[in-house]
Queue: 2 jobs
Job 1
Amino acid sequence: MTESEAERGSAYPPISEQLDDVEAAREEGRRKMDWAAQHMPILEAVREEFVDDQPFEGERIGMAMHVEAKTAMLVETLAEGGAEVAVTGCNPLSTHDDVSAALDAHESITSYAKRGVDDEEYYDAIEAVIAHEPTITVDDGMDLVAAIHEDYPELIDGIVGGAEETTTGVHRLRAMDDDDALEYPVFAVNDTPMKRLFDNVHGTGESSLASIAMTTNLSWAGKNVVVAGFGYCGKGVAKKAAGQNANVIVTEVEPRRALEAHMEGYEVMPMDEAAEVGDVFLTTTGNRDVIVEEHFEKMDDGVLLANAGHFDIEIDLDALEDLAVDRYEARDGVEAYEMEDGRRLNVIAEGRLVNLAAPISLGHPVEVMDQSFGIQAVCVREMLENGDEYEPGVHEVPDELDREIAEIKLEAEGVEYDSLTDTQREYMDSWDHGT
Amino acid sequence: MTESEAERGSAYPPISEQLDDVEAAREEGRRKMDWAAQHMPILEAVREEFVDDQPFEGERIGMAMHVEAKTAMLVETLAEGGAEVAVTGCNPLSTHDDVSAALDAHESITSYAKRGVDDEEYYDAIEAVIAHEPTITVDDGMDLVAAIHEDYPELIDGIVGGAEETTTGVHRLRAMDDDDALEYPVFAVNDTPMKRLFDNVHGTGESSLASIAMTTNLSWAGKNVVVAGFGYCGKGVAKKAAGQNANVIVTEVEPRRALEAHMEGYEVMPMDEAAEVGDVFLTTTGNRDVIVEEHFEKMDDGVLLANAGHFDIEIDLDALEDLAVDRYEARDGVEAYEMEDGRRLNVIAEGRLVNLAAPISLGHPVEVMDQSFGIQAVCVREMLENGDEYEPGVHEVPDELDREIAEIKLEAEGVEYDSLTDTQREYMDSWDHGT
Amino acid sequence: MTESEAERGSAYPPISEQLDDVEAAREEGRRKMDWAAQHMPILEAVREEFVDDQPFEGERIGMAMHVEAKTAMLVETLAEGGAEVAVTGCNPLSTHDDVSAALDAHESITSYAKRGVDDEEYYDAIEAVIAHEPTITVDDGMDLVAAIHEDYPELIDGIVGGAEETTTGVHRLRAMDDDDALEYPVFAVNDTPMKRLFDNVHGTGESSLASIAMTTNLSWAGKNVVVAGFGYCGKGVAKKAAGQNANVIVTEVEPRRALEAHMEGYEVMPMDEAAEVGDVFLTTTGNRDVIVEEHFEKMDDGVLLANAGHFDIEIDLDALEDLAVDRYEARDGVEAYEMEDGRRLNVIAEGRLVNLAAPISLGHPVEVMDQSFGIQAVCVREMLENGDEYEPGVHEVPDELDREIAEIKLEAEGVEYDSLTDTQREYMDSWDHGT
Amino acid sequence: MTESEAERGSAYPPISEQLDDVEAAREEGRRKMDWAAQHMPILEAVREEFVDDQPFEGERIGMAMHVEAKTAMLVETLAEGGAEVAVTGCNPLSTHDDVSAALDAHESITSYAKRGVDDEEYYDAIEAVIAHEPTITVDDGMDLVAAIHEDYPELIDGIVGGAEETTTGVHRLRAMDDDDALEYPVFAVNDTPMKRLFDNVHGTGESSLASIAMTTNLSWAGKNVVVAGFGYCGKGVAKKAAGQNANVIVTEVEPRRALEAHMEGYEVMPMDEAAEVGDVFLTTTGNRDVIVEEHFEKMDDGVLLANAGHFDIEIDLDALEDLAVDRYEARDGVEAYEMEDGRRLNVIAEGRLVNLAAPISLGHPVEVMDQSFGIQAVCVREMLENGDEYEPGVHEVPDELDREIAEIKLEAEGVEYDSLTDTQREYMDSWDHGT
């Protein structure tokens, strides 16, 4: 530990020092990770390569991620590639303590992630990670990038680069970049075709709906499901809900997305109208105040409200609290807000990311995260190998890395596909053919 | 208690005498039931009618059902209609002890259902119900009907009739009826359009898939999902899996169902071939030995095996056990059988009904059971009101009862529809119109 | 020709005597039939059997069907099985004269079907068929059965039985049967699982939508498509329209069907409300006056109105005519009715069965009719072989015939499926297995 | 006419001079255009603006497009905006002579498009358009751009810019641009979100399938439909085919697209394997030699082959011709190639773009082209208004134009949507918010 570590958050202890029965937790966490490993062929292939090549030797990787079994496989993969890794959570409710403990047991990994920490502890843990003086940052919501730029600018010189997982994080990084405030290169992992299509569409879609179904024991068939936002996440939620025989209603602010939803056959209307007919409301906008007081006032008794976006600000719970005459836990993970007229509006997982924060939730499916983390892994490798080529700012993932991951996955699935013949390649490159 | 009760299973105690903290259990059970009540408008409407009319005054109703929050609403509805009700489970793994305790707290209800009982206790509990000398039986798998006919034929004279919930139960009752061995009338609730379409298709489909997703943290997108059987349950599972972007493969033994699946766009093949390509296998046949040794031998490493039919005999676990060199819990509710060549076949919930027996499972969605139990409730009323009209044997639910439930549901959902005009009704009844 | 033939409609000439260039017509008709034959493996298998067995030797079969290439294969199959066949159309607009001519060229077939005949000619042609004194009738809309019972009761004694193809025809036959007015046995071919599911669902669904798309050059994506009736035809139209990204709205009069549509995720509302939001209206009820004056008054400019039911009475064109200030052909097969306020309501194919009567329409897809006519063919064989067993009245198609056709089809498609083992068959037949 | 016109293709006559009954053709063409106009609200709104503003006064627009009713509305819109327009076809089989004649009747439009011209006439017509010395080119397949660059480079100085409609055209333009060979700016209309999603996905998908259904009278249900290429067109064809209950098989050369198709639940395999199981083959790659000799050898009797890409080189008809022992017209628009072993492979529309070249085909649905042509129209306006800002080369359509069209469409459809509040806009622009 360096001196500066002592000054920073090093007072905050790793998870292993915070649990009563750390051995039992490690064993349970390891069992969860083994299951994930069984279904993450991409990361397995990448790990094998890393173990051989040790690309991260001498590097320190700081991570703020949802710490559960799947992410743990990325953490381990990076550690086995030679890095010292320090990791904490990126959401107080998404950490699995047992997985965190299993990670912390690895000789090259220190994990500070703990479920249910308060705001102060949350940021202490982030500072504890920063105290390791990372040379690479891996973020899910840009907490590390933000904290380093705001409070530890002296570390920036030593940082090769970073990777950011989420839509929201990338959005904010771009805004930061536009202000010339981003001082090291960060890969916008979220923006790759692989990440967007599989993680956002299939991952968010399937896991959010399954979490809600298992948390509420309610059915989708015949329900009016209002999906706020028709970005990749919204498309996934809408498609999967329709695939469970829900009647999907979409709200949007961007006319082309609104039109796209309309042309898919969904009903499109303002939230003001949707509030009157919806049975379930799912926000996926990445924006704030999507469902607010005027909407709560119009909703039916018994509606469900959940967020599949990022932060817990899409549903205005303060306004709901003000409107309510009573509030109680109707079911694990379901808070009922009772209105003066007797209507009960049921908020799931406190409006936090439902597929991570609901009591019955597991985050994204294993296979989907395998793809997403596969890209993360090769992005970190790329940053180290060719970091000089990247100016400070947000960078798209190089196309060949994204393609590499797809090839690994298809091979693992046993899916074969065609190759261009020379004649075809030549044809695609030429422009001098007539009708 | 009558003398005969003393002789029979009356030694077996109600749940309240078996739990340590019965008060806490009752409170938790009641909270679960309140949530269900909020989403069961049909049963609520029926209950209001029953409370006013007391149709079951003086009757004793014996029930063997999956005892959880939704079923509990049926039990209460019957009790509030004036009956003394005795209830036990119809599957050792599907009982929620807290709900059982909450039911047992009702002055007109005795509940013997307890999770995890062994075979002897299971049948003792059934006998304890029979010891109440029911005048009506309500079954989910015909355990009560079978036990009464086999061991307590002297009670038959006092029994007005019964109702049976499941496909499998009705199938066996019909076989019994064909042998002239069924000595009182039983409504085949399973066979109503309402029950089949909503419970089997939507209920089994959605809840089985959500249970598996939440038990395994795996995704459906791109998976080869093999659905054994294309009856109503199989159709539901296939439709909902396709709606999650799975590639669905159907196995069948009946050519018209096979053809129907083929015309829906699913792949149809024998299990022998499906075993080679499937990622997930779901049995819904109601038959035995659907997946057996020769199939296990061909499966890939990491496949999932689950049952959404009725009994745990669709997947031949004895054969799998014999083939395996190791067997361990890979995850809560997932038993991995390791083959000699290293392949791991993962069996979910011990091959029992997956949407009830998996660790993360809640049975059918609330709304679906509301429909199903609404029919049960009016069937029991019908049996008492017009029991003389029904000969011993299996009876279809009278069409007007089924229709009554649909009308109640549509009204509760606020869905309006058209009525025939007199001219239209006349036209439909006539045959003398030309081109 | 017998004397009685001379007295009846025998004055009406076969198609060959009505066409200018009968040779060209026959050649074109034969080419159409050859294409159909290439895609009708069921009928081909049945025909091979009939050619060998000559089951209809000495019989006279009277038919009133949509005379186009596919039906022609059934007509030929029956003729090649040894029958003398006389055939006419069952709808003035659905006949293909060239196919009619090609049939009439067969030495055992006389075809009277001609497109565009007026009412008098239409019934003359039916009488011409009856003049052949059929021993078997094959109907598509019960025109032959009705005409024989009303006007030629003396023929009934000589009739072994009949087969009826359509929902509407069967409905009317049942009404006739209920009045004890049906004096020979008729198979309700429409009611078989094979016919209903494949013909009504897939056939009507696909062909109606493709006809409308090709007649109007409009898209389904994003359209509000109102489907009146949620029977088998309505389900098919709704499913296929949703599969083209339409937003489907269902109107119904039967609460269980309304609920079923609601649970599928479709919007359900009365026609009164649907009229205000629909872009396309498709009637499939088999009833009359489904879309009437009050609905026309609420519709948007540019809506499409079409009928996929049976008769042209589902849309009240008289009322529409009365409301309109102008009426003109907006496009081949599209009649625009202009309202006083400038709105144009576009009626396709004069409200007749759209997949047969639209200018770009071909009736049901070949493969679907192959199944349907395969059943017709074996039903006619059954009526002759076991006619004594059938009392006058409507009869369901024996299950084994329906199953036989499914087996033939699966074999032709190369689709394999499982068989029950003895143990499984025994299990399904038993009722004495416990949990 | 200038002198240079006289030297160029001016010898080639407009359509009006080539038809026998030009008045009848014009009337019929106008009726088709009126129907299109009724369903093209975007172009109607744009036209109203152009009529007022006359943005194209003094300009000469040269167009090579599929000349049918919808395109005609774009041609008229540009003409009514003040331009002199000369137009010809971009495919010998896609022209509707009556529409061409109706256009030619407009005082500011000269149309050379004629169906069924041979190669020489085709290029003569293109030269005739070029002879008008266009200041703007609008292409569908870059025929005009190519011809001008190759043969009339002297015109380039006078050209403000162009617009290109298709994927294939844009692909070739980019290749040309990469070689620095493109000497004026061209908008890649194909690449806009609006064009890609609606035209390629919905338009190509729906119209190709409906054309094939109506040309063959075959069904999609239960068919193995092989879609070659999973770009936007392929996605549309796959989605719509699955929506008609086909079993969709995708072939691809790009691993991410292959993986995307796999994750959607489609089967992915090389064409070599697909050839053995497919019932229908649809090419959408924009490349050549997608289905070749080795594939033909493996196909089943009766398969259908069609192209929904661009040029007629995706299916290698020369190789098929060589393999065949016979070849005949099985049906209008269907050429059967008979193999030595008796198998018949049926090629639709000579392997040309099926939704334009099949006998029953209408090109894209009206509404879809309304969107596509709306963008074309505002792109041409943009090129004139701000042409100086665009360097020679391929340019993306400015985002605000694309968005403008979406807004017009939503308003026309009566679809309302939300707007960002100030707080939300500020939030989206900021990056300094914590968890």
Job 2
Amino acid sequence: MRFVLATHNTHKVAEFDQILASALPGVSVLGYDGPEPVESGVSFVENAFIKARVAAEHTGLPSLADDSGLCVNVLSGMPGIFSSRWSGEGATDSRNVELLLAQLADVPDEYRAAQFRCVIAVVIPATASSPARELSVEGVWPGHIARAPEGTNGFGYDPIFVPEGFDVSAASLNPEEKNDLSHRARAIRELAKVLADD
Amino acid sequence: MRFVLATHNTHKVAEFDQILASALPGVSVLGYDGPEPVESGVSFVENAFIKARVAAEHTGLPSLADDSGLCVNVLSGMPGIFSSRWSGEGATDSRNVELLLAQLADVPDEYRAAQFRCVIAVVIPATASSPARELSVEGVWPGHIARAPEGTNGFGYDPIFVPEGFDVSAASLNPEEKNDLSHRARAIRELAKVLADD
């Protein structure tokens, strides 16, 4: 089965394809260059379905979309759905990281807990033999926010996210290690389980 | 009774003095130029007490401190305690406003509810006739976040906060009107009630 992944981010397509294909032989994940809707939802689940539905409608193929973000406890779960645009107009990974570190500058170590969260929405168009279906899964990667960026692998907030059980940032892990541990990896494996049980 | 207000912000001293003195004849509010501690608390209440305790210790006088902020529902109550430093290092009112508007750019009108919140902590040192006392009160001003700044009165997030019952921003109200409606006004009146019942 082929899934379209509703993102223009090639990092994500590679990550999904690598994990999903290894868990479920015969499944592959394709990139998508169709329209990207405004993510006007107010939760990961809403935004993921907004994107997956547009891709399914545009391509006619089973479509996946994830909405992921960093949830910092002392920020009541923010940046959350605002992770990629946290620093506003023209946001970049490094500006987002810099802003978050500055916001948390006075926050003591014991209050720096955070989680990467990933929700994957699946939209499967109706076929001659089966009705349309929608489902979603979630993956959570616990850790805390460092005092300064570290490491050059990864993207987004990886340089300041120290996963539980480590004393280095997610950007210091090698890609294989991260692909095994990450919130997206956890969500994709959960998805593989659900699809396998189908 | 004279209270020291633990802030270097002269706007706030004037606001407290005006409201508290008019509600409680004989009470006045003094400015403070002593040490300002790091606000390392993770709630308005904690930060207010951190500041009031330092001022009481430094001056030996009954001391007040407020911790106030803008709580946006779709941001799970943030900027909250981070309101004044929302845009990070070198934050200014206009940068904070600009960042918040950019973060909420895709958020539809029905999800733009927000409240200004103000907690006032009171620390009264022990005297010969009475032991030390601590208490706190809270004031809440409901409204929503506008699409663009408006008005030139006020400070902080006033230009983008539209109070419930109005269709203009808090920065468009005249100072008397705002002093009557604001979160700080509500908290200060609550404080006056508590002090009057003493």
